[in-house]
């Protein structure tokens, strides 16, 4: 699941309110890309917040904000890498 959740991951982790992503997606076994790594305090995808996220059942191998790409939106793009394993046909 990916998107702009309008909820900063660091704040959500600190407060764990019922209707926010950590509890909602955690209930179905998903974790945020930001649980792997985050760019540090005050460096987010939208101002200082990590509101743009990828949630998945597996832990991300890496998580980054692409700070150099900042002229196209008020959000900076984020990239999460996952190991998907071998394809089965």
What do you see in this structure?
The protein is of the alpha+beta class. It has one domain (2-81). Helix content is 15%, strand content 20%. The protein contains 2 helices and 5 strands. The chain has helices at 9-15, 21-26; strands at residues 2-4, 31-32, 52-56, 62-65, 78-81. A 3-stranded antiparallel β-sheet has the order 1-3-2. The protein has a two-stranded antiparallel sheet with strand order 4-5. The chain is globular.
Describe the strand arrangement of the main beta sheet, using strand numbers.
Answer: 1-3-2
Total count of helical runs of at least 4 residues? 2
Query: What is the chain-wise order of helices and strands?
Result: EHHEEEE
Shape: globular
Low-pLDDT stretches are none
Largest β-sheet summary: 3 strands, antiparallel
The number of strands is: 5
In short:
This protein is of the alpha+beta class and 89 residues long. The protein has one domain. The chain has two helices and five strands; from the N terminus they run βααββββ.
